[in-house]
Design a protein that fits this description.
Order of helices and strands: EEEHHEEHEHHEEEHHHHHEHEHEEEEE
Shape: globular
Strand content: 15-25%
Oligomer: single chain
Radius of gyration: 22 Å
Number of strands: 16
Distance between the termini: 29 Å
Structural class: alpha/beta
Largest sheet: 7 strands, mixed
Low-confidence stretches: 363-367, 388-394
Length: 394
């Protein structure tokens, strides 16, 4: 089965698209990587998405407009990928998270933009979307979703799999207390906000971070945020670590220039390390955009056996897009999309859930001809309670 996985992360830096061919023999599932693309957002849509993210609170008219425009952008990206990478049987579209609502550690709900009907209109393929809702309905965090991929792929060795996106997440697998998973806090989102204040899209190659020094007082104040002390599973996003977060926490004591970037890199490294060290893995497998920040990688390499996911066969820039493809395969076959730990699903859900909703709602194959009429019958009432007033055509 060939599946196209698509996602845009909290950095809103690109639409990542990856094509996988997947098949199972006995208890082994094989994912063949067929290629991936990092496609730019339409500039105007990206600008308005960034303007709509917390702490902004756009009204429902803007949500609707962005849902439609994000769907168009994902649809165009999928169509291009199908042309350049090859055909697929299913598209899995995570969309763009607009709001992930957490109250007192419990996820109330989450909203991902990107109308799947518009992706289907561009591709003609079934589209699996709304991937987080079922886990949240079961009492889980709905994030991060990488646990199943990490457990199936890396669980033979005690491993910490860390994705360095806008938010950093970690999955611990192969240990006595694993798998466990959660968002550790910011990886790139605060750095990107600091770069935006300077008129930059990001700190290219971590050059600014490499030029500064850690402001220990500022770092200590940031580390005092109660979020970092909460145990896994936990999840967060720009609702908490928003563009004004550092100024809100530090006020006039906010570092300036390169020192701010160096301090924020140290915050990311320290909060990731605090989680990883508790589980004593033998290797650290990293992916995501933060892999391109040399200072962050240098700081994390002090932990244990660090290697990019590329070294094990999954491109670091595309791991989450391939994760979407895996979730699609599992959901298509009626299987839960979250790994199980000693206490149940690692997101904290009360029960395992099959993830996502399918557009259009159809099975693997059309198993019946289109009906020409509908008969309504009361259960147990027999033919005497039948209504046979049909006669239309689908």
């Amino acid at each position: 089965m060939r599946i196209l996985g698509m996602i845009s992360g909290t950095s809103v830096d690109a639409i990542d698209v990856a094509l996988a061919d997947m098949y199972q023999v006995d208890d082994t599932l094989t994912l063949t990587t067929l290629g991936y693309l990092e496609l730019p957002w339409p500039a105007a849509v990206r600008e308005r998405l960034l303007a709509a993210l917390p702490p902004a609170s756009p009204g429902p008219a803007e949500w609707v407009r962005l849902h439609a425009e994000t769907g168009e952008a994902f649809g165009a990206a999928a169509a291009r990928a199908l042309t350049e990478l090859g055909p697929a049987d299913l598209v899995v579209s995570h969309g763009q998270t607009l709001h992930h609502l957490v109250e007192r550690g419990r996820v109330v709900g989450t909203l991902q933009l990107g109308d799947p009907a518009r992706v289907h209109a561009h591709t003609g393929l079934p589209v699996l979307a709304d991937l987080r809702a079922a886990d949240i309905a079961a009492g889980g965090q709905g994030a991060p979703l990488a646990s199943t991929l990490d457990a199936l792929w890396l669980g033979d060795v005690p491993t910490a799999a860390v994705n360095l996106g806008g938010i950093a997440n970690v999955t611990i697998v192969g240990t006595d207390d694993g798998p466990v998973t959660g968002d550790t806090g910011p990886a790139n989102c605060l750095l990107d906000a600091a770069a935006a204040d300077l008129g930059l899209r990001c700190d290219v190659d971590g050059a600014l971070a490499a030029a500064g020094r850690v402001d220990e007082a500022a770092l200590g104040a940031l580390l005092a945020d109660p979020y970092f002390a909460r145990p896994l599973p936990k999840s967060t996003g720009r609702e908490h670590f928003h563009a004004g977060y550092v100024r809100q926490m530090l006020g006039a004591a906010t570092p300036t220039g390169p020192d701010l970037f160096t301090t924020l890199v140290e915050l990311s490294a320290r909060t990731i390390a605090d989680v990883v060290r508790r589980h004593r893995p033998r290797r650290l497998v990293v992916s995501g955009g933060g892999v391109a920040n040399p200072l962050l990688i240098q700081r994390l390499s002090r932990l244990t056996g660090l290697q990019p996911s590329d070294c094990l066969g999954l491109p670091a820039a595309a791991k989450e897009a391939y994760l979407m493809a895996l979730i699609g395969w599992l959901s298509w076959h009626g299987l839960p999309g979250v790994a199980r730990g000693p206490a149940g699903p690692v997101t904290g859900a009360a029960r395992a859930a099959v993830l996502g909703s399918l557009t259009p709602p159809r099975a693997v194959a059309d198993l019946a001809p289109a009906p020409t009429r509908l008969v309504v019958e009361a259960a147990g009432a027999g033919a005497g309670a039948r209504s046979e007033t049909g006669g239309g055509r689908l």
